């Protein structure tokens, strides 16, 4: 195994190295380390996409508010509770509630109510992760006190200049605000998850190496990172499908797997998700990410009637809800909390 130094130049060199034998050893070493640190089991979070309504306009995302062709839906309380009951009965241990960003009080108080209701139907035993975008300190605190204990918000890229090219230039889409939300989540006591998109236009391997070091320096508890997949109904997607160049699907898959492996080597005791977007590039994408050190899978538990509406990127609507996991052992009825978080607190 080549020695990888945990520096910007060492990680950049590893990401740029496409030697087959090097890549094979890197991924397998990370998989072995995962088994030794967080164990060989994979934990499930049932992913519930509760609404495609979003106030933001991120250039890459199919449900951005300016996409007039996006279909907008919001699940009813009954649908959310019944999907949570399904996850509980199936032994998933945890659910993740995700949605477009809304900050109005109707939305924020509804989330608090729903978190309490989901805790009630499971005698407190179903773990709840939220992924509802940037929210005020008070809102996040209210949701934490209602019973949510993990929160996911991707930094998308740790390079502020690249972040600025992916978002409108206004206060709603500020890199600094996103960082502040990550800090707020940490100080409230959440297990904090973040991550990045891989293979974006204008993104270099050095940027990705910087992302790995950013996650390490923040001492993140959980990570969900995956390939960027262009959506033809977005400004960035349109440009990628015409003038702008991005790495090929094969290159984005390989980069994503190497990012998972390098992060596992850098942060042996965190939770790393095998993300859904990988499966657009390869039907066995999530299985491969697990072999490269990931230990979390998020099967989609949203009702079939709305699946196509949460249309973030091309190909997402055609995915099956449950990834092929082969012989992988599942940690049923367990939260599978981040060991990093446990040791820090
Ligand atoms: N609205 C919340 C937020 O932005 O944090 C949660 C939902 S948002 C759809 C979840 C993630 O989807 C984003 O953090 C982004 O990384 C990812 N995403 C959006 N568009 C994507 C695309 N075209 N390719 C890959 N991932 C994408
Ligand atoms: Fe909205 Fe999240 Fe999509 Fe941005 S990434 S447009 S905040 S749903």
Mean pLDDT over all positions: 95
Share of helical residues: 40-55%
- Portion in beta strands: 5-15%
Number of domains: 1
The SSE string, one letter per element, is: HHEHEHEHEHHEEHEEHHEHHEH
Category by helix and strand content: alpha/beta
Distance between the termini: 34 Å
Q: In CATH terms, what is the architecture? A: Alpha-Beta Barrel
SS summary, helix count: 13
Strand order of the largest sheet: 9-7-5-4-3-2-1-10
- CATH C-level: Alpha Beta
Note the main sheet. 8 strands, parallel
Report Rg: 19 Å
- What name is given to the CATH topology? TIM Barrel
Describe how the helices and strands are arranged:
Elements: H1 8-16, H2 20-37, E1 43-51, H3 77-89, E2 94-99, H4 105-121, E3 127-131, H5 137-146, E4 150-152, H6 160-166, H7 175-188, E5 191-194, E6 197-198, H8 205-218, E7 222-224, E8 226-227, H9 235-241, H10 249-266, E9 271-273, H11 278-281, H12 285-291, E10 296-297, H13 339-344
Helix pairs in contact: 1-8, 2-10, 3-4, 4-5, 5-7, 8-10
S-adenosylmethionine binds at residues 60-61, 98, 100-101, 131, 133, 153-154, 156, 197, 228-229, 231, 277, 312-313.
């Amino acid at each position: 195994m080549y020695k990888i130094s945990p520096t910007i130049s060492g990680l950049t060199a590893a990401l740029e190295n496409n030697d087959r034998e090097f890549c094979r050893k890197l991924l397998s070493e990370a998989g072995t380390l995962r088994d030794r640190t967080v164990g060989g089991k994979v934990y499930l979070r049932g992913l519930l996409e509760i609404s495609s309504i979003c106030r933001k306009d991120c250039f890459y995302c199919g449900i951005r508010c300016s996409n007039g062709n996006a279909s907008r839906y919001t699940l009813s309380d009954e649908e959310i509770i019944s999907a949570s009951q399904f996850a509980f009965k199936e032994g998933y241990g945890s659910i993740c509630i995700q949605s477009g960003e809304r900050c109005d009080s109707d939305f924020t108080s509804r989330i608090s109510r729903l978190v309490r209701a989901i805790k009630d139907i499971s005698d407190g035993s179903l773990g709840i992760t939220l992924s509802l975008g940037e929210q005020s300190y008070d809102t996040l605190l209210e949701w934490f006190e209602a019973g949510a204990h993990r929160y996911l918000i991707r930094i998308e890229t740790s390079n502020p200049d690249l972040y600025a090219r992916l978002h409108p230039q206004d206060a709603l889409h500020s890199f600094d605000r996103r960082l502040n939300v990550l800090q707020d989540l940490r100080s409230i006591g959440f297990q904090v998850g973040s991550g990045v998109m891989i293979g974006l236009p204008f993104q270099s391997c050095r940027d990705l190496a910087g992302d790995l070091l950013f996650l390490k320096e923040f001492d993140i508890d959980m990570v969900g990172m995956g390939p960027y997949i262009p959506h033809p109904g977005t400004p960035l997607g349109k440009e990628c499908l015409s003038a702008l160049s991005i790495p090929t699907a094969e290159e984005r898959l390989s980069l994503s797997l190497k990012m998972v492996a390098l992060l596992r080597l850098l942060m042996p005791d965190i939770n790393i998700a095998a993300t859904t977007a990988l499966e657009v590039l390869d039907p066995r994408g999530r299985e491969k990410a697990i072999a490269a050190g990931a230990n979390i899978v998020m099967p989609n538990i949203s009702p079939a009637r709305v699946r196509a509406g949460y249309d973030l990127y091309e190909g997402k609507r055609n995915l099956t809800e449950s990834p092929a996991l082969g012989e992988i052992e599942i940690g049923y009825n367990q939260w599978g909390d981040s060991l990093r978080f446990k040791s820090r607190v």
